[in-house]
Automatic annotation (TrEMBL), chains A, B:
It holds the Pfam family Peripla_BP_3. Residues 335-376 are annotated as: Disordered. PANTHER family: LACI-RELATED TRANSCRIPTIONAL REPRESSOR (PTHR30146), TRANSCRIPTIONAL REGULATORY PROTEIN (PTHR30146:SF138). Transmembrane segments: none annotated. This is LacI family transcriptional regulator. Keywords: DNA-binding, Transcription, Transcription regulation.
DNA sequence: GATCTCTCTGCAAACCTTTGCATTGAAGTA
DNA sequence: TACTTCAATGCAAAGGTTTGCAGAGAGATC
């Protein structure tokens, strides 16, 4: 029933190798033959069997996309962009969800390693050393985590946090809180580091609350804690938590932004839909997905995984590209931030007015922070 | 470099066929041998090459998941549930996004057909006849569309629409509008049919506005139209459109629910986060994902796609299961619906009080509407 | 002790494609 | 005409696994 290369060969009166070349090396076959073969293939509805092809070429033309939580609205735009980009380059994408579980991540990489040409690890929760170890098993590109020696796509949340803190300080806030994200999150650490430094520079205090699950429930659960902390502004690990916090504060009768200002991170689509609309640090998730796929495929074409005659050829001079790409973030000011208790008064230390919101760079136009080629 | 079955065979001193059986038919191999082989495999980090396995068995252990729009929050829970269910059964999931485009759907099914054991078509936009045609190429399970002769997973939006209309009528609304979904959507037609009938039964008028893109923008764009329609209640194709409508009405200064009541469909997570919180018809998306995968895999194990000796064996008695599963929906009443202009007055026709909100059946406990086995 | 049964293992073909090498035949050159 | 060159095609091996069949023992039965 399934039509194979042999059927096409028979129909068009040539050898199967000619049919094969018609698809994979068209310049090697006579134009007349080529059109005849293509016509027959079209007629019969022939599609090359990718499993057979993979078996001999060593490339599956599949990539794996490992996601902490598909239901977290941060990820769908990334998945969508990655899938689209991959498809343009004739790759298909396995999507797998780990439920924020480090062990599941590891198992998934193992399970996928043999049947994909590379894996995109998005916001991994496992340890750096484990990631490095796994990267020896299958080409890896990491999103939202910085690892020396591995290709990474990062969003400049540090800059985002700085902008957010400066925005809040400029509004007259001195007592701030950071609603931290999950343990093991690079973004959360980065946020904490940058926000802490920015707060210090602005003469403000920053209380860290967490770690917390990066969900609406995680934010909701800390509303009471936030109120008790006596702060007038909160920067949340992500929009989901910020929105949960908004809900929680609303339930406690705390008005936003009159009593407490709230800033999120990500700019997921619903952050425009809450009341008040959420001020947030927009992260270029779609661009990250596209870029990560590009880097993975680039890496993939670099190392010729030649299976043919594998026994004798020693893997010498295999090169790994370890470019790290940092994508710009942008503070989007909406209605969840307002004047703080020190509004109008002179701020101790730091410049008078913080810089305005950051303009995002051309979308999809990444800024390469570091790029080098290392022989391994 | 990649460790194959041959390496394991050598290490454990048995033939490769014994190693193979250790994994795919353990009962055929001596327990002692088995543990030794497993130990060696573990040691070497052996994972069977699924491409090679697929080549001979004819099963890839992959399934395709074709989604109209990953970024539409309706889908991620479905994707997540489907992926999880598939993985439990040792299947991996290709996810592909069609951007609501019928042509993309067709091309995607073709591209995937040869490298998956089956395809889940979620909320397809293409024609019934095309779906039927494609179903001869690869086992298909369709979600959110009813097709005779094909396995379908449906959500009872008809019942949902009825509940919603009765709820609105019970609140004293007589002039209602339906914000229709995209052309080609079975759900939209079904909604229209059921809502129309329910409105008639309740002595209310129903104006249909649309078709519209099933997005927030689609709802937003029709706010003016809705106001001009002079209705006091609107049922939207989905929550996203309802939320867009909420925004649009807010911008026009129309108060919800005081002036216009709004009901959505889906109960996506953000419908609890809008102000006012959205009244909506909850659809069991996760259960749908799980069920669809189960049906696909069931179908898959039914038809033995034996490749061995393919030339001579004629495909006789191939059976196709065409069970159709209908999942219950539930009206969730929140704050976007309120008393209408005829509140308190006696309603013409129909029973006095509509039934209360529907309780959802046990989650994941589908009600089989029709199940039969057809020889083809 | 011969025969039968049964469990376990090995052998080898098959799945579909790619690709290095060999072959063919025509065109170009001396 | 005899030779080289080159484009186009065919040949066959290889890739990693599964599986029908057959063979080798061991144990049971008479």
């Amino acid at each position: 029933m399934p039509v194979t290369i042999r059927d096409v060969a028979r129909a068009s009166g040539v050898h199967i190798s000619t049919v094969s070349r018609t698809f994979s090396a068209p310049h090697l076959v006579n134009p007349e033959t080529r059109v005849r073969v293509l016509a027959c293939a079209e007629d019969l509805g022939y599609r090359p069997n990718r499993a057979a092809r993979a078996l001999i070429t060593g490339r599956t033309h599949n990539i794996g996309l490992i996601i902490a939580d598909i239901a977290n609205p941060f990820f769908p735009p990334l998945i969508k962009a990655a899938e689209s980009q991959a498809r343009h380059r004739d790759y298909h994408v396995f999507v797998a969800d780990t439920n924020e579980d480090a062990a599941a991540e590891e198992e998934l990489v193992h399970a996928l390693a043999k049947q994909v040409d590379g894996v995109l690890l998005c916001s991994p929760r496992m340890s750096n050393s484990l990631i490095e170890q796994l990267s020896r098993e299958v080409p890896l590109v990491v999103v939202n985590r910085q690892l020396a020696g591995l290709p990474c796509v990062l969003m400049d949340v540090g800059q985002g946090a700085r902008s957010a803190i400066e925005h809040l300080a400029g509004l007259g806030h001195r007592e701030m809180a950071l609603l931290a994200g999950p343990r093991g999150s690079w973004t959360s650490r980065e946020l904490r580091r940058a926000a802490g430094a920015a707060a210090r520079a602005a003469g403000a205090d920053l209380t860290v609350i967490g770690p917390n699950p990066p969900t609406e429930a995680g934010g909701l659960a800390q509303a009471e804690q936030v109120r008790r902390a006596g702060v007038s502004a909160v920067l949340a690990y992500n929009d989901l938590m910020a929105i949960g916090l908004l809900e929680g504060l609303d339930a406690l009768g705390v008005r936003v932004p009159q009593e407490i200002s709230v800033v999120g991170v990500d700019d997921i689509s619903l952050s425009r839909l809450t009341r008040p609309k959420l001020t947030t640090v927009a992260t270029p998730t779609a661009a990250a997905g596209r870029t990560a796929v590009d880097m993975l495929l680039q890496q993939d074409t670099d190392l010729p995984r030649t299976a043919r005659g594998g026994g004798s050829t020693v893997a010498v001079g295999v090169r790994r590209t370890t470019a790290q790409v940092m994508l710009q973030t942008e503070l989007v000011i909406r209605d969840s931030t307002g004047p703080g208790p020190y509004a109008g008064r002179e701020r101790p230390g730091a410049a008078a007015a913080g810089p305005g919101p950051h303009r995002r760079a051309d979308p999809g136009n990444p800024i390469v922070a570091a790029g080098d080629v290392v022989a391994s």
